């Protein structure tokens, strides 16, 4: 019985640690944490989750990079990075399992011009239409996932 | 009835005239029957011809114009792409499109389909057309000396965040965007890498994001426009030498809504504008050497929100009235001047009657600073707590920047 009460008491404390899952982005309502622009094109949206569980939403890879570069690395510790799947906007995936295409024809909101895919086949389909080069995570980001 | 021979001839002529008024007219001679497609009509033209389309409905997409021609619509001819591809594509200099209704370009993740797409062209004029239910309305890329004038552009309302921009310019030079009405698009007017252009007399209302969006565009002017009820107002980013004069920014309400959002702008002028009922009137971030003069800021949540990394901006002869907070900033360092503005919250006096207050005015209240850090504190707005904080801060300034000050606040609002 005591053990149950102990667990019941501690559960909310654990809950306070924060949700590490990507959060739902509301296009037209949410704005980019870095450039303040309202997010409308969810194909390029990215998210950072800090160690404390705070979510930072960006409208473009470019803004996420700029934010990480400018941020004080002592006060901000990044736990998770999520990127919207270009083929399924609003579906967030982690960089380890992703494929990246950089093409100037993508015209992303802040000129990052990088699309993320969960499937290599959809990347290749897009590359046939828009051109561009396949890039690795390391060349794209200043953060290690 | 028994018709005589001359009467029959007359009837035939009348009939022919009737048909011809309804059909497309080529060089003012009725040659092309209505059943032909617009593309077929265009293919028959020689350069510098004029095609008149009198009414009719054409279900056609990707109509391509590759020679200098003029198309004039009378009695509202409709060109409908029916949700597939684009409506008109112009890839030639000296094209004029007038009086058409263009609708139904497809929403797409890959291509930016438009009502009219103008690519690599000069001296193209798009005037007095109606564009409805298009993904993008008028789309100019890599073009120069074009005019987009007197058009009515409305987006597909049900598509919400999937809709494109009303007038979209990418890498253009010397474009005039005049007297258009843009509703329900993503950004009403969007300029990226656009130089020497004028945006004048447009009316942009209820667009999902910005009424006007400038990115990396230098030496541009926007005047006499009305931006109303847009998701987030107007954004001017990463540009230099932009002139914004005599515009109205109204009713841009929401957590990230601004009358004007300025980010990394230099050497520009904001003059004679009215900023009314916005959550934030002007937000300045990383902005320097701006002249902000003779603007009227009324009924805003914050009139001006200026970050500490802004330098050498000069605010003068502005009117600050009925705003919840006049000015707010996020640091103690202030490298901008705020002299000679009118503040309705100023409680000083003018003993020498020179029209300027004898006591300096500090427009940043401690409560505004608190609210910008902790938005929930707005619950205490107009409470005794707020009054106490503001009075204490006025007596012994500790949090608010001491040098954000108007040394000569005006006693009367300046004439606009």
Describe the protein in words:
The complex is a heterodimer of chains A (145) and B (416). In chain A, β3 (78-84) and β4 (92-93) form a beta hairpin. Helices cover 28% and strands 20% of the residues of chain A. With 145 residues, chain A is an alpha+beta fold. Chain A is globular and about 60 Å long. Chain A has one domain. Chain A is built from four helices and seven strands; from the N terminus they run αββαββββαβα. Residues 12-16 of chain A have low confidence and may be disordered. Chain B is mainly beta and 416 residues long. Residues 15-33 of chain B have low confidence and may be disordered. Chain B folds into two domains: 40-229, Pectate Lyase C-like (3 Solenoid), CATH 2.160.20.10; 232-364 and 401-416, no CATH class. In chain B, 11% of the residues lie in helices and 38% in strands. In chain B, the strands form three sheets. In chain B, strands 1-2-5-8-11-14-17-20-23-26-29-32-35-38 form a 14-stranded mixed sheet. The relative contact order of chain B is 0.05. Chain A binds chain B through residues 27-31, 35-38, 40-43, 86, 89, 107, 126, 129-130, and chain B through 109-112, 160-161, 170, 186, 208-210, 231-232, 235, 237, 254-256, 258, 261, 263, 283, 285.
